[in-house]
Amino acid sequence: IPVDSFDLVVFGGTGDLARRKILPGLFRRFLAGQMPEDARIIGAARAEMDDAGFRALVAEAIGEFGGPASRKADELARFLDRLHYVAIDAKGDGGWPALAQAMRPDVVRAFYFSVAPALFGDLAERLHRHGIATPESRIVVEKPFGRDLASACALNATLAEHFTEHQIYRIDHYLGKETVQNLMAVRFANILFEPLWNARHVDHVQITVAETVGVDGRGSYYDKSGAMRDMVQNHLMQLLCLIAMEPPYRFDPDAVRDEKLKVIHALEPVRPEDIVRGQYRGAGKGTKGSYTDDAENRDSRTESYVALKVNIANWRWKGTPFYLRTGKKLRARASEIAIVFKEVPHSIFGEEEGWRENVLSIRLQPNEGMTLSVMIKEPGPGGMRLTEVPLDMSFADALGEDGTDIPDAYERLIMDVIRGNQTLFMRGDEVEAAWAWTDPIIAGWETRGDKPRGYDPGSSGPEDALMLLHRDGRRWREIR
Ligand code: NAD
């Protein structure tokens, strides 16, 4: 369905994120017919260049990151026609009158802040000073949204000086993933799951976001952040909220976000013995190198891996732990949410070899999809022997063309901005509540002077992280 016509200004339009995700994503939406004929995208960044220069840069970015879509030369030319560029100084006055001039009245105005967060306030202030932002305009802000509660509150306060909450779209691209939205459909559009979705029937939940890459190239940024700030406070927390929240009364932005916020408020403080931090260490073993080399800080205590056991203190979840883990340089690039159900109360088949609990596995990458593992009778005449089979719903199969029809998270979210739908964006109070929970955890290990445990690049993480589940009589699912 086409969206209303728009002028989308991408601040930082020449930067890495714009070239890898935002602009190729917009091209795919264009190919999908979602962009009105007169929609325009205006790059705004520091470099001096004209429209032609920007179009060449975008064409190159789409060639590099646009996948199979980039081969459609005619369409690409038509897409590039709607691109414009204004050189702008976020901290000065240069370029702002030209940007004001370039904006059309009577179309949706959206401003994507794909620049360092230190510039958010400057951009917001100048958009107003130059009369570019209207009460209907939207701004999209990127992560990181603060590095602790105080900085997140300050950032919210700065944006609030110029924009109301309903104009601010805080992006968490995990919420734009097809599977994540499907999680809500599965929970709230089927009668099957919701009656079982509680501590009586769910033994525990595992959320894994495993990467194979290290911090190469981003070392100095990452070293000030670490896995807890970079991944858990935002992405993993958002996933946890969607699994744990109560049914909202309607699929409406504030109804959904109110329920997510209640989950964050119900999170118990995490005990030190329920956290394992790790750092990949390859040195001396002939493997690919160590975190401390990549981060160029030999004494760094920043974690490139973290695993934690999280308890939710409410009626639905009391007694069902959520185990979260994320890390870099792990065995495989794999993100999964696994809802591990309890055993049947009594087995009429006696002690069965190979008996497994039912697991609903929600894969975010690769191969987005869901699998429900169920026990059935092993086919054949061998008597009543049980075996586990998957009920598989791979979205790639459902949509055809090996998954290429699934819109990337960024492109879907940008179209939501144009539509004015905030459901899949974080509200200011959610972000603050998430930091309020995260801050004491980080402060705890900083005061104690904890050192992260070493783990081999290409492994599943530190040994101690295995113990986190073993001591509860459980085991992590394989990373593959
Ligand atoms: P980048 O350094 O590659 O690009 C920065 C952009 O900002 C450039 O276009 C530059 O011209 C512009 N810019 C810098 N100073 C300016 C000024 N004074 N006036 C006007 N323009 C100015 O950065 P990036 O990697 O594209 O990241 C952009 C934002 O997105 C950051 O907030 C980052 O944290 C976030 N982010 C990036 C990624 C990623 O994969 N790159 C992922 C998630 C979030």
How does the SSE layout of this entry go?
Blueprint: E1 6-11, H1 16-31, E2 40-45, H2 51-65, H3 73-80, E3 83-87, H4 96-102, E4 108-113, H5 120-129, E5 138-141, H6 149-160, E6 168-170, H7 178-188, E7 202-210, H8 219-223, H9 226-244, H10 253-266, E8 275-280, H11 291-294, E9 305-310, E10 322-327, E11 334-341, E12 359-365, E13 369-377, E14 386-394, H12 395-399, H13 409-419, H14 428-448, E15 453-455, H15 463-470
Parallel strand pairs: 1-2, 1-4, 2-3, 4-5, 5-6, 7-10, 8-15
Antiparallel strand pairs: 7-11, 8-9, 9-10, 11-12, 12-13, 13-14
Helix pairs in contact: 1-2, 1-13, 6-14, 9-10, 9-14, 10-14
Description:
This protein is of the alpha/beta class and 480 residues long. The chain has two domains: 6-142, 3-Layer(aba) Sandwich (Rossmann fold), CATH 3.40.50.720; 175-407 and 426-470, Dihydrodipicolinate Reductase, domain 2 (2-Layer Sandwich). Helix content is 35%, strand content 19%. It has 15 helices and 15 strands. Strands 14-13-12-11-7-10-9-8-15 form a nine-stranded mixed sheet, sandwiched between helices. A six-stranded parallel sheet has the order 3-2-1-4-5-6, with helices on both faces. Residues 400-404 have low confidence and may be disordered. The structure holds nicotinamide-adenine-dinucleotide (NAD).
